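# nightly structure sweep
# worker-07 picked up a monomer target from the shared queue
# config: single-sequence mode, recycle default, output format = structure tokens
# input follows
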Amino acid sequence: MSDYTAEKKLARNVGITIAWWAHAAFRLLLAVVFFYYGGAKLVFGQFGFSDTGDALIAHGEMSPMGLLWRMVAFSPLFQFLAGLAEFGAGLALLWRRSVPLGALLGAASMSLVLVLNLGYDVMVKTPTLIYLVLSLIVLIPWLPRLTRAFLTSGEIPQGPSPRLIPWRPAERVGAIAGPIAALALAGLCLWGISGLYAPRSVDESVPAGVWSVASDTAEPAAQLSEDTRWSALALGSISSGGEARAQLRQADGTLHTGTWRRLDGSQIELTLLDLREEGQPIQEYLAAEGESLVLTVEEQGDGTLHVTGEGQDLVLAPDESGRMLYDRGFSWGIRGDDPFNR
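# output follows
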């Protein structure tokens, strides 16, 4: 072999090795991204859970993004499987034997997420498109093999194997250390993500639920548009950091949203904010103090609640219709009250 040929072969091998290192950088970046978003779904942190504390907002009052968040939050199964696909794609990308599977899973997941982001006007459209393109770039070395597998009937050639260090002993070590490192990184990411969210607890005891005002000692305003008396109250049962979601509807139609927590005895603290306005920065909205109310809630023998304090003296009755979404449940088979569209 001439010196020129040897140098040309060496340059080609160096170029291939550099290309595989760039490929590995894309894989690692995508893996971390998929671990983050997938892990956030697996621990039910990104969308949370749907519960009665969000029962009063009307369909037309939601933003498109809010509608999507509620849809996903309502189905823990959908949320978990979406997270499993993304997290699994990240894990597969870190083991050279499963890289094409990880790239395919990642591309499929990001395609669905991109459609949802476009359809529901979620702000991260461009990053999602970038992750989709990167997944396809990672898949490029296997595209000829996939094309032959799906579009022709000829023999399918052996797929490429990423070689970061073209030295047989190093490859043997990497074959063992790679999967172990991938599992360690995945576990570390999942542990770190779970620590970002406060522990949850569920307490469905009174006054959690959806309530409508049955009677009120306050006099109505002359005009309905000026009537600030309470019309309905929704208190969630899923607490995070000791606080659960709450919503309050006034007689004039105004909706307030916020949180509530249990105090000593029969007292609760209700913290309410106006709905976030279109164009209002999230930092400004979260920085608002809101209105804090300390109320005494006493359960009556007929199942109603007597609420007093902060200028309120009213009776709340359970709103069964307002709980339909949360009490409906699921059934495989046909039953007397078949699933219905309402």
